[in-house]
Automatic annotation (TrEMBL):
It is found in: Membrane. This is Peptidase S54 rhomboid domain-containing protein. InterPro entries: Rhomboid-like_sf. It is a multi-pass membrane protein. It comes from Pelagicoccus albus. Coiled coil: none annotated. GO terms for cellular component: membrane. The chain crosses the membrane at residues 12-33, 98-120, 126-143, 155-173, 179-197. Keywords: Membrane, Transmembrane, Transmembrane helix.
Length: 261
């Protein structure tokens, strides 16, 4: 029994079903409140997590930072929430509520710990969302999303593009965001690392078997001891074996037979 199985048996009752839906409802509510409030920045800043605020007694921030919506036009936010709901519910149905909760929690804890690098910097939930995209793309790579609701693109290529952009950004930003990227995406290797390594080993083994098979196919099965012809160089010939186990092709058998006669 794996560690995840043991944790699920002991702590499975703590899991939230439909976690993705709750997160979206929270983000929609915060977007609505901040849009209606004359002090939009003030509403959102009350949700942001920083270690200095948390240690000063504002403990709610450890959860509310997950409810901060993206800084985009509402149309794109609706599209993002739709995609997030689809991907999150897929992961939950694939793993079960406990493992999906743990997947999100691992990314959140990683992001919060990254905040220790700069206690006064706000911790973003952006890369936590990306980890869910990567998880969905790994499990369901050929699923098609329609970019701008028109162009169909397989989600694996979207994930590859996002990963490339994120990697390029990783080498351009400062230490805090480097830690934030690494911490928020740590859940992916934890949950998929063993599977990826096993898959790479299997592919390597299959390649070596293929090479051996091709090498075996390229070697002749029959070789005439008299003229050196093989079943590959002369496939039209027949090969016979004498009592000593030596092969003789059909062209060499005739002269030998006539001579003996």
């Amino acid at each position: 029994m794996s560690l995840l199985d043991k944790l699920e048996r002991k702590l499975g009752f703590l899991a939230f079903n439909n976690l993705t839906l709750y997160l979206i409802i929270g983000q929609v509510a915060m977007f609505g409140l901040s849009s209606l409030s004359p002090n939009r920045i003030g509403v959102l800043s009350s949700l942001v997590f920083t270690w200095d605020r948390f240690l000063s007694g504002e403990f709610w921030r450890i959860a509310t930072f997950m409810l901060i919506p993206g800084q985009s036009h509402w149309i794109w936010l609706v599209f993002a929430w739709m995609v997030f709901y689809m991907m999150g519910t897929f992961l939950e149905s694939h793993w079960g509520a406990f493992r999906y909760n743990l997947f999100v929690l691992t990314a959140a804890v990683g992001a919060l710990l990254a905040g220790l690098v700069a206690p006064y910097y706000p911790v973003s939930n952006f890369y936590i969302g990306l980890s869910i995209t990567f998880g969905f793309a790994y499990l369901n790579p050929n699923y098609e999303l329609r970019i701008y609701f028109i162009l169909p693109v397989k989600v694996k290529w979207i994930a590859v593009f996002i990963a490339a952009v994120t990697l390029a950004r990783f080498f351009q930003v400062g230490l805090f965001e480097k830690a934030l990227i690494a911490g928020s995406l740590i859940n992916f290797p934890i949950f998929f690392g063993r599977d990826i390594i096993s898959s790479l080993r299997s592919k390597k083994k299959l390649r070596s078997l293929k090479v051996e098979k091709e090498k075996f196919a390229a070697e002749p099965f029959h070789t005439c001891t008299l003229c050196g012809a093989t079943d590959i160089s002369h496939p039209e010939r027949e090969f016979r074996y004498n009592r000593e186990g030596e092969a003789v092709c059909s062209d060499c058998v005739k002269p030998v037979t006539d001579e003996d006669t």
